[in-house]
Amino acid sequence: KAGVTQTPRYLIKTRGQQVTLSCSPISGHRSVSWYQQTPGQGLQFLFEYFSETQRNKGNFPGRFSGRQFSNSRSEMNVSTLELGDSALYLCASSLVGGDSSPLHFGNGTRLTVT
Amino acid sequence: AQSVTQLGSHVSVSEGALVLLRCNYSSSVPPYLFWYVQYPNQGLQLLLKYTSAATLVKGINGFEAEFKKSETSFHLTKPSAHMSDAAEYFCAVSRSNDYKLSFGAGTTVTVRA
Questions:
Q1: Is A93 left (phi over 0), alpha (psi -120 to 50) or beta?
Q2: Closest to B46 (Cβ–Cβ): which among A35, A56, A102?
Q3: Sheet architecture: strand order including B19-26
Q4: What is the pLDDT along chain A (114 residues), one digit of tens a residue?
Q5: In chain A, positions 63-92, which contact chain B (CB-CB < 8 Å)?
């Protein structure tokens, strides 16, 4: 079974631009969540989707948004990029979420903002 | 709000020695507890999880963790370190219908030959 796939793996953007990251969950998994990983703040929760509905959102500004499609694939968007948005963005999937089922993580998208 | 504290941001062990990584959580109700490992330039891989079935949990690669409610701890151990254990380890907690994991700051393990 294929794992969680994130594209692209690396991205370089300029301040003020916007970016869209993509995530394909494991087949059959309907819950997709996103995390930001930085050396200073560690791993922080961004948001979680199930059946195209956002069920939880972390403490991030409105520039960070996401969505989920009917096939469970998900995208996250960051608008008006800032230098501090440079991070590894990790997508994770699980069967239904909200229970003891572990999250399965992709290898992440490394975003660098210059 | 739940929080997770990992004691020690960096641990160095000799090959063959015991690996002990400490994790304490704050929660009025025992949460779901997880240990993940991250190798360079990769995502997180599940080592093991606690969901109240048994206090001693065995995971992959010879790791195990013991849940101690009285100490609100979930420490990770491995009896004999291998060079391939060099990585960053994260303790995480979640609650039913929380839809998110709260992670500790991570502990980087280096293994000396």
A1: beta
A2: A102
A3: B3-7, B19-26, B73-78, B64-68, B56-58
A4: 789 999 999 999 999 999 999 999 999 999 999 999 999 999 999 999 999 999 999 999 999 999 999 999 999 999 999 999 999 999 999 998 878 888 999 999 999 999
A5: 90, 92
